[in-house]
Amino acid sequence: MIRNDRHHPCDMTDRYFVEPAISGDTAVLAGPEAHHLTHVKRARPGARVTLFDGSGAEFPAEVRTIGRGEVVLSVLGRDEIDRESPIELTLAVSLPKGDRQRWLVEKCTELGVSGIVPLITTRSVVQPGPQAAKRLARAVIEASKQCGRNRLLAIRDAQGWADFVASPVACDRFNTLRLVAHPAATTTPMDLLGAGLPDRVLLAVGPEGGFTPEEVELALAAGWRAIDLGPRILRIETAAVLLSGLVTLSGSSGRPSR
Ligand code: SAM
Fold first, then answer.
1. By the number of CB atoms within 10 A of the CB, which of 21, 70, 89, 192 ranks highest?
2. pTM of the full structure
3. Whose CA is nearest to atom 3 of ligand 1?
4. In the chain, domain spans
């Protein structure tokens, strides 16, 4: 059966991200969003588009004027449309280098991951700085435009593994399933995911050189479960996307109400 749903992202007009949050009946696009509308999509005054501001809503709008680097739009309405996963999924990951980092963030946005914590581990090679954080924030916006998310995946501050494992969010053993991907583990995702998931899941994926035995031990002592992702060694981003996809699909017994 094919769903006939006017809120499905396939049926939407082009989407643009607005900052700060929309509060009245006028919105202004600037920077890359204005460039996209004007020079890539070649929209003209009168064109209908969809705006979102990360608040969870989206806004039908009409282009009023197009200036140098700035587009003014009339906001025509506000629709609360929830395309989030029912599971609050946080991925703590030792980020790979360069384009692979961007790919990882893009795919996690599409999959509905709520937040990413860049991990600093013994064998991490990338220490995310402010420039990288900016590029990743942009990747989140672009992926959200494409996939229809109205809330932005949050890129959190980088944290050391020991601090992260001891942090309040990682210690909530009663309401949160905490999984660390580790090739030597004996538990598989299927052992855990079929049984129904809590509302919150934390995943951890290590660096190219893997977590050290001490780092794995630290997590196990804090009550995390180590899981194996099969007989092949996956790159960081493959492991992260595979695991995130398994969790979001396991948690989506139904679509959120629209
Ligand atoms: N030689 C490293 C090791 O033994 O951990 C491989 C590291 S792998 C390139 C990067 C990260 O992806 C790992 O730290 C782990 O979190 C995850 N990973 C990759 N393949 C995996 C697998 N088959 N099972 C579980 N985790 C895996």
1. 89
2. 0.92
3. 210
4. 2-80, 88-252
Nearest-angstrom CA–CA distance, 170 and 166:
6
* Centre of ligand 1 from the C-alpha of residue 52, in Å: 36
Nearest CA to ligand 1 atom 4: 210
CATH 2.60.40.420 assigned to domain 2-80? The reply is no
**CA dist 225 to 187, 221, 222, 231, Å?**
8, 10, 9, 18
Rounded to the nearest angstrom, the distance between the alpha carbon of 238 and the centre of ligand 1 is: 10
Binding-site residues, ligand 1, Cβ < 6 A: 181-183, 205-206, 208-211, 228-230, 233-236, 239
DSSP one-letter string for 22-84: --SSEEEEEHHHHHIIIIIS---TT-EEEEE-SSSEEEEEEEEEEETTEEEEEE---EE---S
Residue nearest to atom 11 of ligand 1 (CA): 206
Name residues whose C-beta falls within 8 Å of residue 30's C-beta, 6 or more positions apart in sequence: 69, 70, 71
CATH class of the region 88-252: alpha beta
